[in-house]
Design a protein that fits this description.
mainly beta; Immunoglobulin-like; 4-stranded mixed beta sheet; 10 helices; 51 strands; globular; disordered N terminus
């Protein structure tokens, strides 16, 4: 024991001295002041060697080097090798090394040889050590190397197919060659450096111009030839980036990037519709003359006179001009402090002023002002751990000014009562007609200011084959709205009173009405949290697994002053009474409600995994698979907006005309016995929707530089939004519960959605100046989700935006399951690009005059063709006891649905009105819309000017063939008996609702330096 203690005492000082003789050494590699990632750094002392690779900031680190003199070697393809000696000791300052490019002749010779310099450390020479540069610490030496001699060219071999076509290499406007098809894969520029220039700054000027002279005439749905309005679209921009160096004030300042964009766009479009004709305006209908209601006469004055005769369905067309002006500014800064800290951030500003013109020539102005700023700090600890802390602030102000705001009180002058008469909401009520007459409408006045403050923390570290990333985010969102939901109200006419919707209107008898206003200022608040952990596990060279867990929680939205109203409902919807968030106790059930009137859902756990596997190391087959769960934390805002516009805090009405509740245009916004004073209710146990997303793909190389990828994708949405009308019944039936409350929409979270797709992609790598890709997708999507079906987005469990669809039968919401509105069964996309190119030596793939003429031209085309999207046939009739008119569907007769006849593309004989006392039997989204097709092209060229300046010119053509593609059909039907005693259907049913834009040419010029 004593000998062991003596031996330990003797070895302890040696161990301490050995530990003290080892130090950390680190440095950074630059090129023209820009950090260089991926450079290989090797240090050697005798037979000891260690290597490292620079990270994204050009940093390298050796954690444990013995004190003393070490030889350092820094290599990067395309640059001269740096060799020097450094003295490693305690407190050794950071090394900073500047790379220099190889000459173009050396670079070309190196590329043709297909290799780089030998990486073995040569024996030290007298020239390998240089004097320390100014500003560098002691013991840190940097070599000023001589240019390396070009290696001997390889033996000549017969040129292969590729070499003949790409003997000079290929660079397409700065894009990279594919190393599998060409030996030339070096870019002629790196970072801020351009051959022949020593500037540390880069930037450019750009202009994008489109004029009506270059574009085709807008398409006319009526066939009426109208004059083409003069318009133009101009976007100009300027960018500048580099180090922020100010003589005598700041040196080695942060790197910056600044951009400013100026846009002034005018867009012309043809709009068509069906308007009351001259006879209808004076009350002449089917040989009869009826007196015109004074309120109807005042609203008729807002309709334009018909200007098309003999057209199928539409009798009016006009051209409108919409204006959009936008200014945006972006600024980014980044600065590295020492070798462990970096601060970067940005500031963005955007101002948009837009005017939108509708069929009635109402001009509605929308102004938005947005600010976006962020600041981030990253720190690298001595242990392998990096931390990133960030703060992000966004603010958005939106102001909407309708045509009549503060200008003319249309409703008041017409004698229409019960809607909001405040000057900000002056204007006409909205009108809806079942026969296809254009609905009268205008925008709603609004002044909204939204703000989001977000903080984030991300930690990343590596442990052997694992790279861990974990952290969290917090967002505080403010939605400050000054707007009304439906202040001017809406009247619906479907012929229930007289047999004709236009006769009902002229008589001043609406079939249904709705209005909601009061409590204009609303201040919504929401907090959103998330935490996550991800492991990027390089299990084997052929197998990588990326797995993680995320937790998302979006707290329900509250109102700053508790001004939210929900309905406290007894089981079976037998009774309902309003409950205000400030009281938070249900008057019927005694339920204790939170300030949001909905229970929080904190079960947002989202496991995710991704796998990449190369089953045969010698083959090019790669298998990728993934699975994840994604929550939608934004489901509460639209519900809060509806709950803030209800009695007793404001006026909310949705009623149908009846003997117990007679409605007129003069007095149509009124609550009647048997209907609730509130029009919306939210399930207090609402769940947050989520989507399960999975995919599997196999990729493999094919001959002739082809790559094929086959992919299967699936999405399953759960807890999507559903809406229905409690206690309602079909037309012609008796109410099963006359005492039960009706007239309100109930939103719950029982919706589901699915989408499965198979995709095949064939891509040709860039070879001989030509690259192309072909994608074909076969997919099917179905849902009974009110929100997903209304929006046309991917099946994602719901979202807060868009107008939800209401179930036809409230007792059977699952009957709503049908094709999703975004269900495009077949979609094919193709893209091709060709260029004669420009090589490192300035040559092209084509020789002679063709090469000189086509040098640096690039031609690209894109083709997209797909089947039509689903649409829902609607029987525009009012649901008994409510003011809702767009939920009832017709019956099928067995006749074909898609049948062209003149301008009509749907067969009205395929549908019939629902039988009395029964709901319609047609499934939702049972009509196939028009197929889609587009062909776009572009032609571009780069001009190499003197010095560092390059000029890019590009011409883009949208809808190159000027092909008309309809985007949707009119799908509203009605079979009411007219005054003449004949059955009518909507004369616009089956007509195209809109068409795509016709051919337009856009010219872009960009000067870069």
């Amino acid at each position: 024991m004593e000998r062991c203690l003596r031996l330990l005492l003797l070895l302890l000082p040696l161990a301490l001295s050995s530990a003290a003789a080892a130090s950390e050494y680190h440095g950074q590699v630059f090129f023209s002041g820009v950090p260089v990632p991926g450079a290989e750094v090797t240090v050697a002392q005798g037979d000891k060697h260690q290597s490292a690779v620079t990270d994204r900031q050009g940093l390298y680190e050796f954690a444990d080097l013995a004190d003393g003199v070490w030889k350092i070697r820094i290599e990067m393809r395309g640059f001269l090798t740096v060799e020097a000696e450094v003295t490693v000791a305690a407190e050794t300052p950071q090394g900073a090394w500047e790379l220099k490019l190889l000459g173009l002749d050396k670079l070309l010779a190196q590329a043709q040889a297909g290799k780089v310099e030998s990486k073995a450390l040569p024996p030290p020479t007298a020239e390998s050590a240089a004097k320390p540069e100014a500003g560098k610490g002691a013991g840190q030496k940097k070599e000023e190397p001589k240019p390396a001699e070009a290696p001997a060219p390889p033996p000549q071999t017969p040129p292969d197919e590729n070499a003949e076509k790409a003997a000079d290499g290929l660079l397409v406007n700065g894009s990279e060659n594919n190393a599998a098809t060409s030996q030339f894969s070096l870019s002629p520029a790196f970072g801020n450096h351009r051959p022949g220039s020593k500037s540390l700054y880069n930037g450019g000027f750009s202009a994008i111009v489109d004029n009506s002279v270059l574009d085709a005439r807008p398409y006319s749905l009526t066939g009426l030839s109208t004059s083409k309005s003069a318009y133009s679209r101009v976007t100009m921009g300027i960018t500048l980036g580099g180090p922020l160096n100010i003589p005598h004030l700041m040196w080695h300042g942060p790197n910056f990037f600044a951009a400013y964009q100026w846009m002034r766009n005018n867009d012309a479009a043809n709009v068509s519709g069906l308007v009351p004709d001259a006879a209808q305006r004076i009350g002449q209908l089917a040989g009869l003359t009826i007196p015109v209601n004074p309120q109807a006469a005042a609203l008729l004055d807002l309709y334009p006179l018909s200007n098309v005769s003999g057209a199928n369905g539409y009798n009016y067309q006009t051209e409108v001009l919409n204006n959009t002006h936008q200014d945006s500014l972006e600024l980014r800064l980044a600065k590295t402090f020492g070798h462990r800290d970096q601060v970067h951030g940005g500031f963005g500003f955007r101002s948009t002023r837009a005017d939108s013109v509708n069929l009635f020539k109402f001009v509605d102005a929308t102004d938005t002002l947005g600010l976006d700023t962020n600041v981030n700090w990253s720190h690298r600890f001595r242990i392998p751990l990096t931390a990133l802390v960030g703060y992000h602030l966004t603010r958005l102000r939106t102001a909407v000014r309708p045509e009549f705001e503060n200008r003319e009180n249309i409703s008041g002058a017409a004698g229409i009562e019960g809607n909001d008469q405040a000057p900000a909401d002056w204007g006409p009520p909205a009108l809806q007609f079942s026969s296809g007459i254009a609905g009268l409408s205008d925008a709603q006045s609004a002044f909204n200011r939204n703000r989001t403050d977000a903080t984030s923390l991300t930690l990343s570290t590596n442990l052997r084959h694992h790279y861990f990333t974990y952290g969290g985010d917090f967002r505080r969102q403010e939605f400050n709205e000054f707007t009304q939901q439906n202040p001017r109200g809406v009247f619906t006419f479907n012929g229930a009173a007289t047999g004709s919707d236009i006769e009902d209107f002229l008589s001043g008898i609406p079939d249904a009405s709705a209005v909601a206003f009061g409590n204009a200022d609303k201040y919504f608040r929401q907090s959103v949290y998330d935490v996550y952990l991800t492991d990027d596990w390089r299990l084997r060279p052929q197998l990588t697994i990326n797995a993680g867990m995320r937790w998302d929680y979006g707290a329900p939205v509250t109102e700053l002053f508790g001004r939210l109203v929900n309905l406290d409902i007894t089981p079976g919807f037998a009774a309902a009474e309003p409950v205000v968030a400030s009281s938070a106790t249900g008057p019927l059930t005694g339920t204790k409600y939170s300030d949001s009137l909905v229970r929080p859902d904190r079960l947002g756990f989202e496991p995710r995994i991704g796998i990449s596997w190369r089953p045969l190391p010698t083959k090019t087959i790669v298998v990728r698979a993934g699975y994840g769960i994604y929550d939608d934390t934004s489901v509460y805002l639209s519900a809060a907006e509806s709950m803030a516009q209800q009695a007793p805090l404001s006026t909310s009405v949705s009623v149908a005309n009846s003997s117990n509740c007679p409605l007129t245009l003069a007095n149509g916004f009124r609550n009647c016995a048997g209907t609730t004073a509130d029009t919306f209710a939210l399930d207090p146990k609402l769940r947050v929707g989520y989507a399960q997303d999975w995919q599997l793909s196999v990729q493999s190389d094919l001959p002739k530089a082809l790559v094929m990828t086959v992919t299967y994708l699936g999405i399953k949405g759960t807890h999507g939004m559903q809406e229905f009308l409690p206690n309602t019944y079909p037309i012609g039936a008796s109410s099963p519960c006359p005492e039960c409350p009706v007239g309100f929409v109930y939103r719950t979270s029982n919706g589901n959605s699915t989408r499965e797709a198979g995709q095949v992609q064939i891509r040709r790598r860039l070879r001989s100046g030509f690259t192309a890709s072909l994608n074909y997708t076969y997919a099917k999507a179905m849902d009974d989700d009110a929100q997903v079906g209304a929006q046309g987005h991917e099946a994602s469990g719901g979202s807060s935006s868009g107008t939800p669809s209401i179930a036809q039968n409230w007792l059977d919401p699952r009957a709503e399951r049908g094709l999703s509105t975004f269900d495009q069964r077949n979609l094919i996309k193709a893209q091709a690009q060709y260029t004669p190119g420009m090589g490192l030596g300035g040559g092209t793939l084509l020789s002679g005059w063709r090469g000189r003429l086509l040098k640096e031209w690039t031609l690209m085309t894109q083709i997209s063709a797909g089947s039509g999207l689903p649409e829902t046939p609607q029987f525009l009739a009012t649901v008994p006891g409510t003011g809702v008119t767009n939920t009832i569907r017709p019956n099928l007769t067995g006749a074909p649905i898609n049948k062209s006849s003149g301008s009509y593309h749907l067969n009205v004989a395929a549908f019939a009105s629902p039988a009395a006392g029964q709901w319609g039997t047609v499934r939702r989204d049972s009509i196939t819309g028009p197929s889609q097709f587009s062909l776009d092209g572009s032609l571009s060229k780069t001009y190499r000017l003197s010095g560092p300046f390059n000029l890019d010119v590009r011409v883009d053509a949208a809808n190159l063939l000027n092909h008309v593609a309809y985007t949707a059909w009119n799908t509203t039907l009605n079979w009411n008996t007219a005054a003449s005693g004949t059955a009518l259907s909507s004369p616009t049913f089956g007509l195209p609702a809109a068409a795509n834009s016709m051919r337009s040419l856009q010219v872009t010029a960009r000067l870069r330096f």
